[in-house]
Amino acid sequence: MKIKELIEQTTLQFQEAGIPSARLDTKILLAHALHQSKEYLISHNDQILTDSEMIQFTTFVSRRLDREPVCYITNKLEFYGLDFYVDNRVLSPRVETELIAEQAIKHAPKDSKLIDIGTGSGAIAIAIAKHRPDLEITATEVSPKALEVAKLNAKNILGKNNTIEFITADIFKSVEGVFETVVTNLPYVSRDYIPNMKPEVQKEPAVALFGGSGDGLD
Predict the structure, then answer these.
(1) Residue 2 — pLDDT band, cuts 50, 70, 90?
(2) Phi-psi sector, 9: left (phi>0), alpha (psi -120 to 50), beta
(3) Nearest-CA neighbor of 58 among 87, 31, 33, 25?
């Protein structure tokens, strides 16, 4: 099947399944299956997929129809202009969260200490470290699995310049020292809200989403 035919067919399939960003998701997944950019799809719309490419794309489509977030399928998400690896061990960083990194980059005192509490994928801490190498940064995370992702992102994005100290800790237990700047985006969603959540959000790790019942601020 040709690229242009696949785009139309899959877009319709996603629309019928109630996926709002049907065409965009189709293009992202198809480009990922082909190891190409979305622009490539336009200039090669008559290209016929190989059997292996078709199998790969079909697998991606099935996962998306199961309402798995696109970023978990491609393992890619941009945050503050940086490409992060993400999977179902971590919450996918939201664009609104970039404001936290932006303010810390702007206001953290020079040559001071900063702590990112509940670092998840490491997005906030790593974005800050990329722009403020003068800071001594510590990042905590209660989930060891999430911390694996954060360390991988620090290695991929910061390389030999990575000086972030990652600590497995609940909030800041077992963390010593004085920090001039504290950044955090802790769970704040009430478990009572689960029935109202999008299917994609329900695929994300509960430990990163829910702050208990009631007001969700446990």
Answers:
(1) very high
(2) alpha
(3) 33
- pLDDT tens column, 107-152: 999 999 999 999 999 999 999 999 999 999 999 999 999 999 999 9
| pLDDT class of 174 with cuts at 50, 70, 90 | confident
The strand pair at 113-117 and 82-84 is best described as unpaired
Q: Is the dihedral of CA 32, 37, 38, 44 positive or negative?
A: negative
Longest dimension (CA), the chain: 60
Interatomic CA distance for residues 39 and 138, integer angstroms: 39
Give the closest residue to 119 by CA, choosing from 78, 84, 167.
167
How many whole angstroms separate alpha carbon 163 and alpha carbon 157? 12
The region that residue 107 occupies, defined by phi over 0 for left and psi between -120 and 50 for alpha, beta otherwise, is alpha
Closest CA to 116 of 202, 163, 65, 184: 184
Q: For strand 181-184 and strand 113-117, is the pairing parallel, antiparallel, or unpaired?
A: parallel
Q: Which string of b and e fits 116-144 if b means at least 16 CB within 10 Å?
A: bbbbbbbbbbbbbbbbbeebbbbbbbbbe
What is the rounded distance in angstroms from the CA atom of residue 2 to the CA atom of residue 4? 6
pLDDT tens-digit profile of 142-161? 999 999 999 999 999 999 99
Q: Please, what is the end-to-end C-alpha distance for the chain in angstroms?
A: 52
